[in-house]
Amino acid sequence: MTHDEIQALILSAIELTNQSREDLEQVPVSPDTALFGAQGHLDSMGLVALLIDIEDMLQDQDIHISLSDERAMSAANSPFKNVASLVAHISHLLERE
Amino acid sequence: MQHILVTGASRGLGLSIVQHLLAKGNVVIGCARSKGELKHENYHHFEADVANEEQVQELFIKIRKTFKYIDVLINNAGVARMNAFALTPFKNMRETIDVNYAGTFMCSQKAISLLRKSANPRIINMSTVAVPMNLQGEAAYAASKSAVESLTRIIAKELSSFNITCNAIGPSPIATDLIRGVSDDKIARLVEQQSIQKMAQPEDVLNLVDFFIQPQSKMITGQVIYLGGIS
Predict the structure, then answer these.
(1) Could you tell me if B77 and B18 are in contact, meaning their C-beta atoms sit under 8 angstroms apart?
(2) φ and ψ at B74, to 5 degrees?
(3) Residues of chain A contacting B113 with CB distance shorter than 8 Å
(4) CA A79 to CA B98: how far, in whole Å?
(5) Residues A25-82: pLDDT tens digits?
(6) CA distance readout (Å), B131 to A46, B96, B151
(7) How many CA atoms lie within 13 A of B64 on its CB side?
(8) What global pTM score does this model have?
(9) Are B43 and B14 in contact (CB under 8 A)?
(10) Quick one: CA torsion of B150, B155, B156, B157, rounded to 10 degrees?
């Protein structure tokens, strides 16, 4: 998958997540969106829900990777900090496959 | 009709659970290290070792492709080897933790996305009265199940936003393969410590399975229920 394809998939997953969130809790569907941690729009369970949706979408394309990461809750270098870091994380995992 | 995944499905209590759930009209997906010998139109068997991360991953990929979702995960797969703490080989302790705790951990984690698609998603784990009774000779087994109990309570909190409940059943002694090597005297002494001084039957566990699965149990999570009046 290319960088743009991964980014598009993440943005689709955010749209899906927004369907089950209140109006005031909508996550901006943008490549610049902060996801988790400082200024992040998601709490830990919101993040889990988003990551499960992304894993599901990847599995629909027969791509079976786990997005779990020991740095998940790290304030400094979580791969889930924002859309850009998540794109890089998934891209890295796909390269290792 | 629900889709129910039972690990450790080929014998003992797991097989009883499978047969019970099939009789109630459910689709049952069983997994075990051995081949499944049960033949039933609604029974689907997969060979997998729950202590093996790759095999668990493969198992859930197959289940997702075939069934799309599951309503209930019953983490029944388990091993028990009684031995004095001082004489327990490290390898046996490791295997006990890997199957009983790590297996439950991995299957529960992989099941989240399939359970989210259910209206009444449930995880049921298996513990034992050996945990509250701190039974001698069960250092590895009881500790592994103690970890399962902690996992049960934490999953209950973390997955409540997905409406997934997570509970555990703690059977008192039942005549299954798991206690085959335990002497009659020892079993009798254990049963004497229970409020209800009788051996349990598989039906007593099935009753709790039914209780946790039913839609009315949606507010019951993070609980460990022991048989026989142990607390």
Answers:
(1) no
(2) -115, 105
(3) 52, 55-56
(4) 28
(5) 999 999 999 999 888 999 988 999 999 999 999 999 999 999 988 877 776 788 999 9
(6) 34, 14, 14
(7) 24
(8) 0.93
(9) no
(10) 100
Residue A88 lies in a domain: yes
B chain contacts of residue A59, beta-carbon cutoff 8 Å? 61, 64
Amino acid sitting at position A18: N
Tokens 């997540």, residue? A17
Q: pLDDT of B89-101, one tens digit each?
A: 999 999 999 999 9
Range of the domain at B174: 3-226
The residue behind tokens 């349990």 is B200
Task: Give the total number of structural domains in chain A.
Answer: 1
ipTM for the whole complex = 0.85
* Cα of B97 vs its chain's centroid, Å: 14
| B231 within some domain | no
Tokens 């698609």 locate to B117
What distance separates the 2 farthest-apart alpha carbons in chain B? 49
Q: Locate A96 and state its tokens.
A: 């290792």
The range of the structural domain enclosing residue A8 comes to 3-22+35-96
Number of domains observed in the structure of chain B: 1
Q: Which residues of B touch A56 (CB under 8 A)?
A: 113
Measure the N-to-C terminal CA separation of chain B; round to a whole number of Å.
34
State the amino acid at position B70 in one-letter form. Answer: I
What is the spatial distance between Cα B101 and Cα B104, in angstroms, rounded to a whole number? 5
Closest C-alpha among B60, B146, B136 to residue B96: B146
Burial class (CB in 10 A: 0-12, 13-18, 19+), B9: buried
Cβ of A59 within 8 Å of Cβ of B158? The answer is no
